Protein 1
Amino acid sequence: MAFNPRMSIIPPGQQQSRNTHRKEQEADAFMLLKDREIVGCITDIGIPYTVADLAKPNPLQVQMIFEWFAELILNATRATVDPAMRAAAEDIAGDNGDVLFPSDTRNLMGFYVSLRKLLLECGITDFSFTDLYKPTHGRLVKIFSYLINFVRFRESQTPVIDEHFNEAEKTKERIENLYGENQDMEARVDELRQTRAQMETMVAEKSRRNENLKKRLLELRRNQEKVAARLEEAKAKKGELATQLEHKTADKMLLKQESAKLRPYVQQSAASLQASLTELSNTLSNDKSHIDALDRRARALQTSTDSFTVVSTDVASCIKLLDEIGAELQKEEEENARRNKQKDALLDRKTDVSDIERREAMLQRQLSKWLERTEKLREQANQKAQEAKKKMEELEKVHRQLKQERNEKGTETERRKVRIEQTEAKMRDLKEAIETEVHNAHDEYLKMEAHIKLYMTEMEQAIPFND
């Protein structure tokens, strides 16, 4: 391997860290503001602040300024994070949450998390508690500069932010309305299902009762047919017995008439009378026995007529029961008609439920469309943010290039200035040297002239003396 005299002996990791540190310094130099500008911005928001306060920061004052920035951008303060932090402390420690986690400490922790998220979005990635409790001038200048630049950028993008915020609020309100309508529809569907189950139980009970009534009606019809058959038999038997009674009474009347006709003939002789008497006694006994039999038959007929009356009353009660059954059947038919109406209403409600489900599906589709639109808007916003970030990076690159060119030109101008100053110094030295040489030469000339004049005078004085 050939020796490269220009190769650096610094490790590549340190060199890369130096490069990144140099880039961060360049970015900080681009983003940092002057102390007076920072103090003016903080004073404009209503917090009295001076350059001396920035040079020697006070932790309480710094925390108050951070809290104002968080409230302005995130709408987050220690009071807003207090309920969530109290709930978290109660979840962790129960009733001893206020004892183990004081309110000031937990609220400061929640506020620190919100502030750290804000500063991460602003570009400060190394924010810590030291910046709250032991702030320094350099750190505060950097953090305040990034925050003020972010607020300025946010104010410049206020219409876009308001537009997206309004669209998000409208979408959120629409989602809440759709969710409420969905909940109402679900409650209505549950109610319809409950009424449907109740109606089904009622219909099942009515159908079971109808079946029982049909069975009872069939039994009553069979009993009615049996009773009607027995009644017909009793009526036929009663007619037969009545005809027999009429025949017997007619025979009795005929016998009485014959006995009245034969009575004068019997009174003629005692033997004949005795014979006729015995004959009549025999006939009388026969008639008595026959009459007794007829009486027994009449009593039997009376009992049968009584039984017939009882049967007729039973038949009347059966007829009445049949009328009641008919009324019950009519009620049952009305109940069936009502049940059919309820079935129709149930079908209508089923159609309503299907319409509601279809509407719910349509609302779900609309909700998905709105969600897609929100996703698209979010993607567009992200794309715009990426484009803005790319533009910012390009501007930073251009700024770095311009800064580098300016630095190079500055160094070149410094070099030229140094060279010009050096040449001017050399020219001044040369001029001074020339002037000194001229003065020296002039002095020498004057001396030489004086010497020459003196020599000439001496020569002139010496010449006449020789003559």
Protein 2
Amino acid sequence: MERRSRRSSARSKADLSTTLRRAWYHLRLSVRDPTRVRTWDAIVLTAASPEQAELYNWQLSRAKRVGRIAPSTITLAVPDPNGQRIGSGAATLNAIFALAKHFHHLAPIDSTVADASNLNSISSFYESSNNGYPLPFFVELLRKKHILLLHAGGDSKRVPWANPMGKVFLPLPFMAADDPDGPVPLLFDHILAIASCARQAFQNEGGIFIMTGDVLPCFDAFSMVLPEDTSSIVTVPITLDIASNHGVIVASKSGSSNDKCSVFLVENLLQKPSIEDLVDQKAVLDDGRTLLDTGIIAVKGKAWVDLVTLACSSQPMISELLQCKKEMSLYEDLVAAWVPAKHEWLRSRSLGGELVATLGKQNMFSYCAYDLLFLHFGTSNEVLDHLNGTGSGLVGRRHLCSIPATTESDIAASAIIISSTIAPGVSIGEESLVYDSSISTSVQIGSQSIVVGLHVPKTQNEVFGNSFRLMLPDRHCLWEVPLLGSSERVIVYCGLHDNPKNPLSNNGTFCGKPWKKVLGDLGIRDDDLWGSRERKDKCLWNAKLFPVTSYSNMLQLATWLMGLSNLENANLLLLWKMSDRVSLEELHRLIDFSKMWLRSTNHQADLAVGVVAACLKFGLLGRNISQLCQEILQKEVTGIEICTEFLSLCPNLQAQNSQILPKSRAHQVNLDLLRACDDELMAAEMEHKVWAAVADETASAVRYGFKGNGTMTCLVELS
């Protein structure tokens, strides 16, 4: 046993590029051949509502389609019951039980297989599951499975523009240039890559690896070692000032360690401790730092069986939480059951006795990864910081987009344009992010701003004439959301640094300005936003601020509310008051997720159509036509028709570039399009032509070479 090292302060953080590239390489191998490179048996996401869960299931299907998840892996999104918040701990139990039922539905097993004699470690606290089956029946389904669970539910109040899509699926174009014709990398994709490396730590023991959907933890998960039959929490040393806003782990003074990591028994858990608390609880390391709870939890072996046992008997507990409108936290309540020092405190909490009785026999260990780089996407500002700071060298700033010539627009080189169409006459400032949008002429986007899902019709310019320009100031966010039961969309906006949770009376802001100034400048009263009833929680989150009216009116009112037009315009004030309005809080329940998904899918398919068309008509066929066609085929009605039209251009490809286009490349494009059109018979014939052309070109390359001046010389005479 070794004492905790004083050298930890000298250890450097993981190199983001090296860590991610290695993780992605491993992810691709595990997807390609999961029998050789072990992958997860199931990937589960928690969701805030059934509607959000449906959106997440579409995203999971997309991840399988584009090669992020192995075909053999079960995927499932599990909503909180009745769309009511139950806390991350209860959501964990609910998700595990839902997965057990899902496995049973896919491959029912005979209850005699689940012999209780094989489950000696199972707690006897509960005698049966909530579905009427003996408890060992469900436990046996999961005890040897390897599960990745991502907590992705809840409201993204500090990143409100990511609320519709789910924060875990926000765009993160790290290494996008490595695959220029591939789908836009999402935060979810990078989390999958890191998590794929952690699978080896479970070996053949069943278990679960729990992560949060708003953090990308970059560390060497290949070297992770987890003690058997226990739970473990991943930690990283941090300074004491940062610790005061987070959870802290108090670990024992002895354990095992090396230059990369250490494993120590967890002795206590602290939540947002003061420096005095850290000192009193002996949480300060020898180097003056303390251990941050990263929210990454691994449970394996007997501890996993105990957790499954609890989960499969948890429905009465969850029903009690729903009735009492209480929540059970994973990071405070559930984890405390594995830490004896917290048992007395936990028993005083709602349902704490059940947690201790079922889980309390096993311990928790701290796996401290000294090199862990903790990328948190908790606020809009943090998102831009990671794109333009920490990971700026990895960011693909133009990906699957259509942008005009530099003489027809003013787009900063540092701006990130992803899955978007930009018309001439548009201005986009430094370090801004534009995603999944169509920006028409006469739109100005400031610096360090975020635009998501905005589709400004070209006809709007005709409605307003040349006098109106949609302007988004520096450090602002603007996004567009389709509404349930309505053909209308709502345009939403706020300042980059606005905290929607900050009360009106405590530094609350809208578009970067204090509420008092906003209301005074616009002539809006408190009761216009929050009603006449007295309430103490007045804030941006629950302000009925955003009008639902015609698109042209919403654009005008947006510029007015952001303070960019005549603030004393009585007509705009009256129009705003007469309009139906929604708050950010209400908006989450009103989103038409299916319409949003369909619009985004079709938009990306249209971009792929444009890329392929340009490649076939003007280029040398250097794009990945097969991959682009997969996006085009997401247009269910017209996808194959479009690919068929492209196929008709193939006979002319070789003729129009006969001097410089290799015949094998022309044949390969033809093959890709035949497969996209589902013509396997012709594709098989074309594949022979591809290989024949490759053989001819290879032989020619061996026979001939080029001098420095470009003249051909015979190197080898094979005849």
Protein 3
Amino acid sequence: IVEEQAIPNGDFPTVESPNPEEPAALKMALELAEKVNADIVIGTDPDCDRLGVAVRDLNREMVLLNGNQTMAMMTNFLLKLWKDEGKINGNQFIASTIVSTPMIEVLAKSYDVEYKEGLTGFKWIAKMIKDFPDVDFIGGGEESFGFMVGDFVRDKDAVTSTLLACEIATHAKKNKSSFYKELIQLYIDHGFYKEQLVSIVKKGIEGAEEIKQMMSDARKNPLKAINSSRVLRVEDYQESTSLNLLTNSLTPIDIPKSNVLIYYTEDGTKIALRPSGTEPKIKFYISVNTKLNSVDEIEATEAKLTSKIDVILKEMNLV
């Protein structure tokens, strides 16, 4: 526990922002981790629904995980636990949101567990639990540093998620592994998924109009290719349609309407764009993936994915 942050103070004098999505919020905890040689650092926001996690990499350096990485680890751990206890019988589901990593669906399918997807916000995951009372909810989350363990707390909850993160780290260490090594093993088993969120601020009435125009332009002139990979499908959640660009056919999307567009390309890239519901921003969620053959290739493969994201950002004029 960081002593200077142990006593509640609504002014949050030790940080610029107490949001664990911001790396600076964990600065003091990371400094303490170096002093005591800790394996894991966890920080939550003031209302304890989001959590940020940092773990030691292969070089024993502390690295901050993003919300998608933490969610993938928690999802896989719960799925394996349920499987080992013989509780998976085709009547369970995992849930996430449309702008989160596609890896969660991949993990669910690998355990023959149903995957459900909703709009951003945990109220939609909670609604799934309510709408399907006869199906067991294992867990679920979204990219914005939140996770829900089971159906007891029907919102993102950093209390249970913190305990789960600690359990994952403890289990890994007991088996002569680590949180980070287990994450790499997930990438080897299921593919290396890397995500990046880009937020563009557009303030005022003019900014709101700019965002509206950007979404309108994206609908009228959908991208045909991204980083030389052709776009296969465009999902428009405002129109509740999925357009197959190869056949030019439309299929309905059975999710409530929302101002979101998602592109899927031939090489597995996924790009979602939507205006923020609470801030003067338009957000771009980029996900790329590739095969990872071994631990030895982790740095080179990550560099390759980072370079791919950089190219996409330039193509879309986001840098």
